Q: What sequence folds into this?
């Protein structure tokens, strides 16, 4: 799809066709959503779709997960007129932090961190990431927020796969994602194609 083209009928998820499949091999995610961020209407519609479920909900802050969650998270914070908190890979913040180890979608052991002075008890935080595949990264972010006394107001991502971790998150938190129900099984099987 052309980066300037806007379809006449813009149904939920139309912008998913802007994403590109992995051509570099197993060390990379199966799909790259970042191309849709280049499309002005695609990005706006994606963020609007993610936030629709949270209209009227009390949200005090939006937190995005390093690194691609920063894009959607900052955009969501701007639309909501809320502050934005970066949940980082460990070793990047020069202030007091708390850390949480986790296993990412590729099976690699990692550690993330968040500053301790941004989350006060009872603060309602919308967590945003680009994708929830196995749920390990999002679950670590949830643990950080809750350990500091924050409340997870919801979880938003372009896709929340129907994995064990994705189901764990959906069962416990209000969630929003952009994949229409008819396409969800294809995304769960990592099948790219729109016909």
A:
């Amino acid at each position: 799809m052309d980066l300037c083209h806007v379809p006449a009928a813009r149904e939920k998820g139309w912008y998913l066709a802007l994403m590109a499949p992995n051509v570099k091999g197993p060390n990379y995610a199966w799909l790259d959503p970042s191309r849709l961020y280049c499309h002005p209407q695609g990005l706006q519609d994606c963020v609007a779709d993610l936030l629709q479920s949270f209209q009227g909900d009390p949200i005090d802050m939006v937190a995005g997960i390093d690194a691609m969650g920063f894009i959607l998270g900052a955009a969501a914070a701007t639309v909501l007129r809320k502050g934005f908190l970066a949940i980082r890979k460990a070793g990047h913040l020069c202030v007091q932090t708390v850390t949480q180890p986790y296993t990412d979608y590729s099976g690699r052991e990692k550690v993330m961190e968040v500053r301790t002075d941004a989350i006060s008890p009872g603060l309602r935080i919308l967590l945003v990431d680009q994708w929830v595949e196995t749920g390990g990264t999002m679950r670590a972010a949830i643990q950080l927020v809750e350990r500091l006394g924050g409340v997870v107001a919801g979880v938003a991502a372009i896709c929340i796969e129907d994995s064990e971790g994705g189901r764990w998150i959906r069962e416990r938190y209000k969630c929003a994602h952009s994949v229409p129900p008819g396409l969800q099984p294809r995304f769960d099987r990592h099948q790219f194609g729109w016909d």
Summary: The mean pLDDT is 93. The radius of gyration is 16 Å. The CA atoms of residues 62 and 77 lie 6 Å apart. The chain is about 25% helix and 25% strand.
